[in-house]
Amino acid sequence: MPYPDLLVAPMRNELVRLGFEELRSAGDVDQTLSDTSDTVLVVVNSVCGCAAGNMRPAVALSLQEEEGPKPARLATVFAGQDLEATTRARDFFTGYPPSSPAIALLKNGELVWMMERHQIEGRGPGVIAEDLLAAYKEHCAA
Predict the structure, then answer these.
(1) What pairs with residue 115 in β-bridges?
(2) 15, 23, 44, 50: the active-site residue
(3) What predicted TM-score, i.e. pTM, was given to this entire model?
(4) What pLDDT, on a 0 to 100 scale, did the predictor assign at position 142?
């Protein structure tokens, strides 16, 4: 059973305020991830503490950095609530088991970089943001 909307709304809004598009169905995921030549940062959001204390702040820090390339599009699914969308998004994360939270970078519809929960837990937002910035530099440069 999915988490109640009231519970996850503040967690969703943290990413929406940063410009993330919520993908709430498998169709939304397909439309955003399949037919694009852009780089897309996909955040698998979660109610867990490492998402709140580490992942979402790290994503915000990485996008606030003024210098360097950034993903062309920002998208998110919410594990535990957007069940169909999360399952479909994970289909794009070839070679990785389901992970919540997680951060993926896709280019031309293909996974080029992935950060799983075990790479988020116990690491501070600044360190995670540095990893994100390195991924943007490698995969989002013009």
Answers:
(1) 103
(2) 50
(3) 0.94
(4) 67
Q: Is the pLDDT of residue 48 over 90?
A: no
Which among 101, 100, 111 is positioned nearest to 135, based on CA atoms? 111
Looking only at the bridges linking them, the beta strands covering 73-78 and 110-115 are unpaired
Helix, strand or coil for residue 136? helix
Assess whether 50 carries a catalytic annotation: yes
Give me the residue spans of the domains in the chain.
5-139
Using DSSP's 3-state secondary structure scheme, residue 62 falls into helix
Quote the tokens at residue 3: 């988490």
Catalytic residue among 48, 103, 115, 133: 48
Q: Considering only CA atoms, give the Rg of the chain.
A: 14
Domain 5-139 belongs to what topology? Glutaredoxin (3.40.30)
Q: Biggest alpha carbon distance in the chain?
A: 42
CB-count burial class (<10 Å; 0-12, 13-18, 19+) for 46:
buried
104 vs 22: CA distance, rounded Å: 15
Whole-angstrom distance, CA of residue 50 vs CA of residue 28: 26
CB 47 within 8 A of CB 11: yes
**Look-up of token digits 């169709």:** 27
